[in-house]
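Let us practice reading a record.
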Amino acid sequence: MKEHDEKMPNPREIEKEISEFLSKKFGGSVKIVSPIVLPQEVPLETAEAPQKKEQEINFDLIPEDLVSYLDQYIVKQDDAKAILATKICTHFNRIKHVKASPEKTDEIVGGIKNNILMIGPTGVGKTYMIRLIADKIGVPFVKGDATKFSETGYVGGDVEDLIRDLVREANDNIELAQHGIIYIDELDKIAANRQIIGADVSRTGVQRALLKPMEETDVDLKVPHDPISMIQEIERFRKTGKREKRSVSTKNILFIMSGAFSDISEIIKKRMKDQGIGFGAKIISAQEEVDILKHVKSEDLIEYGFETEFVGRLPVKAVFDNLTERDLYEILRNPNNPVILGKKLDFAAYGIDIKFESEVFFILAKRAFEENTGARGLVSAIEKALLLFEKKLPSTNIKKFSVNISVIEEQEGYLKKLLSVSNSRKLDENFERLELEEKKYVSKYITENKKNLGDKYNLTLSPSRIDIVTSYYCKNIMDIGNAIKNIKSYYDDIKKIELYFFKNNDINIVLEKNAIDFIIEQLINFGITLDNLYKKLTGEFEDGLKLIREKTGKNRFFITKEALLDPERFINKLIKNELQNSLIS
């Protein structure tokens, strides 16, 4: 290789040459203006927007970890959680295993995916659970309604549209889309009608259209007769000169389907009675019906109206329990539940802070249970209870709203009391009481789940840090996970201060845990910026620590909360101690 001895021109030489060229061509009308660069210390990188990372799939989850994650959000459904967590973790870890060592893993001809069938009444958390799992693993997720597939003449096109939706959810990342989850609800609605003699074409047609995607097929991303797809293909051809066929393989896409299957219990009961297993009596309770559903077999689904091939592609079955009144109460009490968080957001949109008395949740749970729509009834119950206040309070000066039993049972009367100036002090006291009650419950919840939460967000949840997360949660509208994630972000930024202090001053400082927690509280409660905090830290500690380094050679210092509160005393004490130690040695 020929070596070049010529020195690369520096930017100023290049700028001069370009300026001379422009001067000859355009005269003095065009000039290059260079920015002035001033020397400065290493900046604290807090203002820069984080670069968007590629979405990654978490293939390292094990079933028990996923169950623990689901327990934070979903009440009851222990059997369903165990089945879904186990089979979904196995599905994705198996993909990881095959990719890691393809030479040792032979393709299994006719291998069957762990596609899952979920059976259970409406409002018990089926969709919510799958969304949580997809978000945790980091895969794209789309939901479809089985009943809509039978409304068009070309059924297969609708089924394939779900695959294309996965690609859109994955931001056009085909590789990511090929590891997504497709969830199809109301599956029982496409079972062939048992009252019809002969084939029920409209419903069995949907089942057949799903057969290939559920197993393995390639779906063309170009939609026939779609002008947008045609334009995109023309544009790609214009840029590359090649006609590229883009398709998605469904080999590793997991299909999860669900339905209420309201009358399949009669089929199961009849089969079990004929086999002499029991359940011969008429079903008298919701729990007995769930117990029967847990005995569902493929033959029951075939008799219900599904084709044998279709049932064969759903080897895993999970039955969801009915929710009791107590379960609905526990859902409302859960700090992560979207029902209460959603209602807090509704009032926050008008600048109103809302707190709930725990006894209110009992009443709302009872009303929701009477609607017999599972957790969906909670939304209806709370909307009916608070609609009057959501209408009236935005027109007032009220910014704090305590929801107690009177709000639920005496709406008009309590509204008048709320608007009365004479009761303002008492209302403030009630709000403070509910605020304290909420903090105690949230703190207890985090303490009980601190291991799982700490491991998940890589943050040690000491008692003082639990207090910080609790306060942050109660002041902001978000679930516990996001509250911890934000505190962890503060923690990471604070640790950067140690690095920048070393880069700019050549002094190694270590912020103790109580100092970090104190700083986090300052950032949260007083809106202090990290940049200002760093400047303050430098101004208060730089000179003193440099003096100690010069006199003793020591270059590592531990900064406590007490040091932050009284820097002068800390530095004086440190100088005295270090100088004495150096004289003794």
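A brief commentary: The radius of gyration is 32 Å.
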